[in-house]
Amino acid sequence: MSVRARRGKRRKLKNEINVVPYIDVMLVLLIIFMVTAPLMNLGVDVQLPQSNAKSITEQKDPVVVSVDRDGNYFLAIEAGSNEAVDTASLQAKVRALAANNPDLAVYVAADGAGSYQNVMDAMALLQNAGVEKVGLMSQPRQDGTP
């Protein structure tokens, strides 16, 4: 009789989705992304040469072309958006920016231990792209000597 009683009491099927495991996975992913986002390196380590030149103050973020010790180019159109580019894409992107803004000023940040030829090549690329105002970036001297 107990076998028949069990057969008669069938479990009713639920037509609901259990979303608790999905919420748990999403919370774990959210925590992982929140912890790892500040650890991402968005910049290029460049040891700028030092000088006692005055700082330039501008209202908007400048366009910066960084050249590392090995001669690789990086383009920063906005603060924090540093992307590696080759010579052709650097020239194309800067040419498009200069076409929209003829008074565009581009700053070159090169590694102080790198070759001077890399800086000159970057300046020639910028000149070929139509940029008329090119500046060089440096760090203030710590010892105060000129």
Describe the structure.
The chain has four helices and seven strands. With about 150 residues, it is an alpha/beta fold. The strands form two sheets. The protein has a five-stranded mixed sheet with strand order 4-3-2-5-6. A two-stranded parallel sheet has the order 1-7. Strand 3 and strand 4 (about 80-85) form a beta hairpin. The longest helix is centred in the N-terminal third of the chain and has 17 residues, at about 20-35. It is elongated, with a radius of gyration of 28 Å. InterPro entries: ExbD, Tol-Pal_TolR. Keywords: Cell cycle, Cell division, Cell inner membrane, Cell membrane, Membrane, Transmembrane, Transmembrane helix.
Name the strands of the widest sheet in spatial order.
Answer: 4-3-2-5-6
Poorly predicted regions: none
Which value, in Å, is the CA radius of gyration? 28 Å
Structural class assignment:
alpha/beta
Total number of strands: 7
Q: What's the order of the H and E elements?
A: HHEEEEHEHEE
Q: Main sheet?
A: 5 strands, mixed
Distance between the termini: 103 Å
Short description:
The protein is an alpha/beta fold. The chain is built from 4 helices and 7 strands. The radius of gyration is 28 Å and the shape is elongated.
Summary keywords:
single chain; about 150 residues; five-stranded mixed beta sheet; two-stranded parallel ribbon; 4 helices; about 20% strand; transmembrane helix; membrane; cell inner membrane
What is the topology?
Elements: H1 2-8, H2 20-36, E1 50-51, E2 63-67, E3 73-76, E4 82-85, H3 87-100, E5 105-110, H4 116-128, E6 133-136, E7 139-140
Parallel strand pairs: 1-7, 2-5, 5-6
Antiparallel strand pairs: 2-3, 3-4
